[in-house]
Amino acid sequence: MKVPFLDFQAPYLELKxxxxxxxxxxxxxxxxxxxxxxxxxxxxxxxxxxxxxxxxVGNGLEALHLILRAMEIGAGDEVIVPANTYIASWLAVSQxxxxxxxxxxxxxxxxxxxxxxxxxxTARTKAIMAVHLYGQPADMDAINExxxxxxxxxxxxxxxxxxxxxxxxxxxxxxxxxxxxxYPSKNLGAIGDAGAVxxxxxxxxxxxxxxxxxxxxxxxxxxxxxxxxRLDELQAAFLRVKxxxxxxxxxxxxxxxxxYLATLGKNPHLTLPVVPDWADPVWHLFVVRxxxxxxxxxxxxxxxxxxxxxxxxxxxxxxxxxQPEMPKGSLPITERISNQIISLPMxxxxxxxxxxxxxxxxxxxx
Length: 366
Ligand SMILES: *Cc1c(COP(=O)(O)O)cnc(C)c1O
Fold this sequence. Notes:
Blueprint (H helix, E strand, L loop, with lengths): L8 H6 L1 H14 L6 H14 L3 E5 L2 H11 L7 E5 L4 H9 L3 E5 L21 E7 L8 H11 L2 E5 L7 E2 L2 E2 L6 E5 L13 E5 L2 H10 L21 H11 L2 H18 L15 E2 L5 E4 L3 H10 L29 H9 E4 L7 H12 L3
Parallel strand pairs: 2-3, 2-4, 4-5, 5-8
Antiparallel strand pairs: 1-9, 6-7, 6-10, 8-9, 11-12
Helix pairs in contact: 2-8, 3-8, 4-5, 4-7
């Protein structure tokens, strides 16, 4: 039996009737951009995230980009970002002309280490972007406290954390604004590209609503220079169907993670993720460390178990950012992590037998 890294067909088959119905409903409506489905999804997702507002946009990168634009962060400004993240968190900052300033992670949770943030703040710093990496919330109270002291905005990159809780509160409402991605592999995934911003700030929400639609509230009246970054009706209709399943699917991910955590400690070469007691992660990814991960990857592959690496190259070492201020060795914790991590099969549709095979193979002393 093969153990896929992630199964895209099973969620469709589970919800086939509802998804096909959503498709037929939108097709028959004759209205495909900014209509009832988007408005309904925005209301439902805001309620889910315990925020006042949700604005559907084109994708996760655009969500972060439009938040920064709406906050009027731009050339000459700096934004604190985690060194250990997907490159999109950094790219959003670069797209508005600001400079991403990297802060190293906590070596156990992989999230930004709040105790290192203050040393990175300068007179140009405008915001802190926290990423809830792998579905585990960052330490938001510590981050918000620093931001308050220095008068900074707080942005959550919640692209991997739909439904995760920090001290009982859902991610998406823990800072000034949050960016979500509904890329198909995310915990809440569309059938294509999609994203959203959540916030409790009415003014920010209104500005993002304008920015996503050509700076326009009324057709052909353009108040500010905007963009075209809209969530479309079809994706919104699919997302509404899947949102109703999100808690159940996240719970299944938690039970997969619980089994990994309860069993894999028996292999002394593996370092397992650490969950602080205030965090309820949703396990977008289950990432372990191994001193010789390519041997482990090969052994798993030979036994039909697929793995991936998230991410093999940290942003500062990618060709996109390679620059003299951030040479190899300049962010040693991030670099050490990125040389050892490997992501195990994880998802709401991983079957018990597949999980048994993955665990048995992982426990062979490689
Ligand atoms: C997926 C992801 C994004 C970007 O989302 P897209 O929808 O692909 O643009 C941003 N940040 C993180 C942490 C992500 O995982």
